[in-house]
Amino acid sequence: MDSVLWLIPVLPLLGAAITGGLALAGAKDAHGPNRGLVATIAVLMPALSFFLTIAASVELAKHPDYPISQHLWTWLDFGSLHLNASLLFDRLSSLMLLFVTGIGTLITLYSVGYMGEDRGFARFMSYLNLFLFSMIVLVIGGSLPMTFLGWEGVGLCSYLLVGFWHRNDDYNDAARKAFVVNRVGDLGFLLGMFALLAVVGSLDYERIAGFFQQRDATALAGQSGLIAAAALLLFFGCTGKSAQIPLVTWLPDAMAGPTPVSALIHAATMVTAGVFLIARLSDLFVDATLPVLGLNALQWVMVVGCITAVWGAIAGCFQHDIKKALAYSTVSQLGFMFMACGAGRFDVALFHVFTHAFFKATLFLGAGAVIHGLHHEQDLRRMGGLARLMPFTGLIMGAGWLAILGIAPFSGFWSKDLILESLFASGGLGIAIGVVAVVTAGITAYYMTRMMVLAFTAPTQVDDETRNHIQAVPATMAIPLVILAVGSIGAGLLWMGLPAAYGCHTDWFAQYLAPVVGKAQAAFAPIPAPPGGHEAVAHGHADAGHLTLAWSMALAGTVAAVIGAALAVVVWSKGYGTAKPEAGTSTAPTGFGGAWTYGFDRLYDAVVVLPTKILGLAGYWLVELLVIAGLTQLVANAARYVGDGYAAMQRPRLRMQLALSIAGLVAILIIVAANIPKP
Amino acid sequence: MTTSVSLFPLLLPVALTLTGGLATLAAEPFLAAERKHDWLPWTAAIAVLAAIIALFAVDTGHVHGLYAMDSARVWLCGGILGATLIALGGLQASLRRDAFPGGEPHALLLFAACGAQLMVMATDWLALFVGVELASLAVYALVGLRRQHAESGEGLYKYFVMGSVFSAVLLYGVAMTYGATGSTHVGAAVQSGSLGLWFFGQALILVALLFKVGAFPFHFWSPDAYTGAPVAITGFMGAVIKVGGFAAIGAQWLALIVVANGGGVPADQVLFLDRGIELTVLPGWLSVLQQIVLVLAVLSLWVGHFSGLGQRSARRLIAYSSVANAGYLLLALALPAAGSVVSLGSLWVYLVAYAIATAGTLTALAWLADHDDRHDDLDHLAGQCRRDPFTGLVLTVFLASTAGLPITIGFIGKFLILSDLVAKGWLVIAILAMVMALIGAAYYLGLLATLWGSESKREPAPARSALAVAALAVAALAIFALCWPGWLVPGQMPGNPKVAAVSP
Predict the structure, then answer these.
(1) Which of A47, A128, A528, B316 could be a cystine partner for B311, CB 3.0 to 4.6 Å?
(2) Which helix (H) or strand (E) element contains residue B477?
(3) CB contact under 8 A, A187 and B438
(4) CB of A545 within 8 Å of any CB in chain B?
(5) Residues of chain B above pLDDT 70, percent
(6) What is the mean predicted confidence (pLDDT) over A490-506?
(7) Does the pLDDT at position A641 exceed 60?
(8) Does a structural domain hold residue B138?
């Protein structure tokens, strides 16, 4: 198996190359390339990757402590820096890859139906495969630079796909914003990587984990500043990719892309890369204990996650665009995942990544079916009563809705419950954050129910023309919808939080990840080891207090969800009433200027854009205008008085430049002369 | 002993380049005006190719302590010759398009390449001076190629006047160094009691070299000289002079460390650029010099990036980009704590990455810039890539590399320099440089966005050059291929920190 690992990323790359080639070859053709051929290749390649991943996972199950790794080639052998292009397939990458390739395949299949009519079908499929390639590299890379390659690759594909319908400037602006904000995050990633390199001396994940797992207190204390810097800078990188405060506003704007893109990239996979990275470097984050501004790295993660979760949830309550409501919900749910990371429960965070991938993909693809059925209408104010018009879609989205609300036994219940539990269990700051999280769960229930009520049960606002021409959901769209809906119902069973609380160790998911994140979690919350060794420690143990906590969290979460949902039903069951949009105004992609960003866009302007302009202007003024032009004028006048006659070739300007250079020379020589060594 | 025996093989690449230049110069009068730009560039290109092949065969060693060759110098000469090849293509395309009367620019290009290679190989201050002057004189003539254009004259005049001032500064520094050491050998031991004189002389030399590479505050000539030169030459001078200048700065830096350690390089030995040297003590004077270099680096980054933002002319934009890149390159000189090994490998990688990408960018732009390079401003370049997808594609690759995007050699260069910087403890400067890199990326990518934009004001002028197409295609591939150096060029990469202070 370890010799064919490279095929997992390469297959989608091949798919991208072939479909891209077909797109280019068919560009001149009036109908474009053969859609059947394009669709077959585009779906087959990720599907093959998925099966290979399963095979590799089966292989891995035999030796859980020995990850499959493949050394491809030596990338850089540069002085003390030794970089390998290598792949690492351990429990963490296996889990991520299973759902990246699995859900990726399903969404590619869905796109066959959704994008079938589009002129750029082959191009779209090519980008989608390229995205899957990059995402797989991100996950399977054996070192931080490999992950960074994938990290940049998914950013590029996101840019290409958000701007896919570059119908007008709004689409391009949205794409550019996503790109630029992500580049800002990448800055943190790179710097964090350099800092980590300075600490560990290597960027291979196995070396990094090995370094920190020794937990040599004196060695760590000596470099605590650099370690904290590495963790915080890498986390800053994660906030960019995973749309957390402060790099958050690009995600709602990114909804300009086609819906399958929103489901795959901006809900299920790419945006969870930040959580993945933190879990991958869990040993680093646990050891970054030096407080910066009063909080250590994981506490920062928790606080930022919490603020983002609240912010996303509140913003979600004010959206008219069905996709934007879901986008803010994604922002908020990502916040929950980071909160779990912050509480030192990386396995719980990944479990929420996993269940969220299912239910959010279900909701997005369901919304896509609605948009498709209503002929590209995505404004909630023009929906209502769709339960009767599209009952299938309604049922599917209902499953996703119950999951995100956290109603037992749907998948979201288990993961959200575990997050609340781990927050309260971590104590101190965690309890305060946990209270906020419970309230946020209530708000989540409110805005999701509002969306569902407005779309499906409120009095209909759909005009007769549209009502009589509802587009049916084709099989290519229906099959993925059903599979994903089943996933959002059943994915939670992989953990079975409650039986675990009873002492039956069926929490398969946590045990599965224990070889990767177990040591970090044990170091974070040292619990006296039960006979089961560190794996048992990693997922806690079932004493009475734990049991009470589990039950009370389940209760609190459910009560919050029910209250929120009930409130939404009471408020919104009549629909918008008179607050309908004016005829002819499209509210869907209104400039993508982020309604309800709480002034974040303004803040960007004030904090980033404006200073840049000012600094730039200052540089220009100082050097170009003030010094050169101003002084030039002075010298020019002087020259005229002296009257040495040259007019051509801007001699005064030249003199000024020469004078400035010589002034620099003199300044340097004065410094040098002042520091001349005594013999 | 690797002295006179290997004299010829060591200088073979330079000799071949020179032969190519002389051959084109000699053949020029015998060719009809309309054939000149067909035959001469190809003749020159064959000579350059031969020189590149010769680079694979040269020995490591030195010639009478004047010029030396090692893996880093091979790599840098390769960068120079690669940039020359690309520039030859650009020159062929634009001179032919403009029906330029006369074929001597091709020869001048090769002479400048000879000079730059000698700068790289020099291990003696006077030998370095010969290289500097050979390169500069040829480039002066190239900048003023379009004699009838006012801006060309202006650029040439400024560059020449300022260049001569700083040549004088260089010689003055060499004279002081000679006074203090009794030798013009790079790294010669300082005679007792002369450390102050020597230090002052070294500072003068450093300043003169900083002028050559266009670092702040000695960059004022570059926007005008770059704008005055034909577009194809702009890239060449940016690339080649910078490689030569920084190779000299790097050699000087290693020599400073040798002297700081209390030693010196004997006359029959030389400093190899691919070796690391252990810094045993960090004396105050070296620390001052380092602070000067770092401050100038940060200021270069600042001035280069922010002044570049508002530029409309592609040439001026690249000129400010060159100031900014001088800043990055200077960052590679940051010293670690005493007791660690100093090696300049990251400098060499970045330098060649920059040289190839810049020469490529400007050659591709020369292709699009219309008759007499009248239209190199963004308004007129808008949308040109759509009409000429090949040029657009290679431009994208070069600019992506300059912006430091991954899977390009430019990314590796920035990666190495900045990771070195963090490892040496200069985290704040690294953060600053990264923020600047972000701004830089904004303007390189902004240029790309304009070039690929949908609006286009004019028809592209027909420029054709098979040489340019071939050189650009190879260069664009190299940008990717060199990103996996361990894989493609094992053993060719400089940067072995195994301490070997002075060659045997």
Answers:
(1) B316
(2) helix B466-481
(3) yes
(4) no
(5) 92
(6) 59
(7) no
(8) yes
Which residue of chain B comes nearest to A620, CA vs CA?
B307
Nearest Cα residue to B139 out of B47, B51, B239: B239
State how many domains chain B has: 1
Q: Is A669 touching B (CB cutoff 8 A)?
A: yes
Q: In chain B, what residues touch A73 (CB-CB under 8 Å)?
A: 484, 486-487
Task: Specify burial of residue B329 (Cβ count, 10 A radius: 0-12, 13-18, 19+).
Answer: buried
A525 touching B (Cβ < 8 Å): no
DSSP conformational letter for B33: G
User: Among candidates B118, B319, B117, B112, which has minimal Cα distance to B235?
Assistant: B319
pLDDT band per the 50, 70, 90 thresholds, residue A609: low
Amino acid at A662: I
Chain B 153-212, CB below 8 Å of chain A: which residues?
Answer: 153-154, 157-158, 161-162, 165-166, 169, 192-196, 199-200, 203-204, 207, 211
**Is B498 contained in some domain?**
no
Nearest to B496 among A74, A79, A678 (CB): A79
The answer to whether A83 contacts chain B (CB < 8 Å) is yes
> Pairing relation of β-strands B275-278 and B341-342?
antiparallel
pLDDT mean over A52-61 = 87
Whether residue B400 lies inside any domain: the answer is: yes
The residue segments making up the domain with residue B478 are 7-488
B 301-320: CB under 8 A from A: 302-303, 306-307, 309-310
pLDDT digits (tens, 9 = 90+) for A510-560: 777 878 888 888 777 754 433 333 344 344 444 556 677 777 888 888 888
The answer to whether the CB atoms of A660 and B217 lie below 8 A apart is: yes
Q: Quick check: is B496 in a domain? A: no
A81, pLDDT greater than 70: yes
The pLDDT assigned to A116 comes to 79
Give the global pTM: 0.82
Asked if A170 contacts A589 with a C-beta cutoff of 8 angstroms, the reply is yes
Contact B194 A83 (CB under 8 A): no
| Cis before B336 (ω within 30) | no
Q: Tell me: pLDDT of B205 over 70.
A: yes
pLDDT at A389 over 50: yes
Cα dist from B328 to A476, B226, B359, B404, whole Å: 52, 20, 18, 12
Cβ–Cβ of A194/B419 closer than 8 Å?
yes
Mean pLDDT of A205-215: 84
Substitution target in A24, A194, A635 with the highest count of B β-carbons within 10 Å is A194
Q: Is the pLDDT of residue A450 over 50?
A: yes
- Mutation target vs A (from B292, B302, B306, B439; most A CBs, 10 A cutoff): B306
B434 neighbourhood in chain A, CB within 8 Å: 187, 190-191
